[in-house]
Amino acid sequence: xxxxxxxxxxxxxxxxxxxxxxxxxxxxxxxxxxxxxxxxxxxxxxxxxxxxxxxxxxxxxxxxxxxxxxxxxxxxxxxxxxxxxxxxxxxxxxxxxxxxxxxxxxxxxxxxxxxxxxxxxxxxxxxxxxxxxxxxxxxxxxxxxxxxxxxxxxxxxxxxxxxxxxxxxxxxxxxxxxxxxxxxxxxxxxxxxxxxxxxxxxxxxxxxxxxxxxxxxxxxxxxxxxxxxxxxxxxxxxxxxxxxxxxxxxxxxxxxxxxxxxxxxxxxxxxxxxxxxxxxxxxxxxxxxxxxxxxxxxxxxxxxxxxxxxxxxxxxxxxxxxxxxxxxxxxxxxxxxxxxxxxxxxxxxxxxxxxxxxxxxxxxxxxxxxxxxxxxxxxxxxxxxxxxxxxxxxxxxxxxxxxxxxxxxxxxxxxxxxxxxxxxxxxxxxxxxxxxxxxxxxxxxxxxxxxxxxxxxxxxxxxxxxxxxxxx
Length: 472
Hints:
Number of helices: 16
Structural class: alpha+beta
Number of strands: 10
Oligomer: single chain
Largest sheet: 5 strands, antiparallel
CATH topology of the largest domain: hpI Integrase, Chain A
């Protein structure tokens, strides 16, 4: 530094960066940049030397400010942000964010999910929202996306793996790669480089040694195999489902159990999707927009629905639910609570409510407590195992599970195939119904009073949100 003048108010010029100086006044001293812009001399205050004690950071900021001035930009936002940032790059990112030129993580995630909601199936959007909202990503909250580095992404991946969630780690990495690839393509995001691009989705564990193989073989011999529910336990579960409240969760679980459709498919069933049929009474036309199998093997977007002929007990469930459900909601099982202030209340029952209800059935003291943990998706595995034993083929089970069905593009042929498959589907579902049904559907007759144990609480179709399993 070189001091100019001997007055109380004086300037000390920096010997490294031209134009950078400290202006000393009676009560303070400030870093200042002096430079000419279009022939005129200007002084730009950078900040107090107390707030900015590191001269190297100030010098870097001064050099960057000169570049901004040559580009015709104002360096003042950079200097304001420098007071609260550890580096010049971070300060510039904060300045860009303050002026709306760069998004932060919360903005980026919200806009990405909005774009997914417009172009993808609901299941895909829910997966992205869940994978990008894990506790392991808490460090990104409020962070400007241009400050997110590849090391940040690696730490997230490794944090999830350290919790033993290897599959979740891979899913989150695929989500982050999709998110940042989308952000780079959005001009308004301000992101120019993808920090997740060169980060591996997963890291290979060290090669297994002989001792590892022996240990694994021994533990495998003592491991508990995935339990298959016996026919007796399936009937017990059917009986237990009759005690689940609210009624909407009960009927949704019973419908999912009898048709072995996915939980989201069950709770998002539209009233209009249940149609009368001259042979089978009622068929369920499941819209392709909510199906997980959304594309065929050639990558073509699926356009046809999945048609299920309902067995008699499932038809009874649907008719009762239609009589109890809210008339102002298009779903058979309306949502029970508003999820946010702007929620209009016209959505469907949360599928998490079904998992919560099954968890209640597996608590200590319940008849199914000693069975392995199960969820609504377990219904599909049990169905496959038991109907195969009844003599049906693997292809037959896929007709119900919606793993394979009419992939041709001709509308007439597709409709003909659906009609031709209905008898086989109906036979399979009736055989499954006979196996599990205990004639215990908890559907109240019209003359049952509130004091009866068979009373159906109609407030469970849009007013009550508690998950309660009625005591036996």
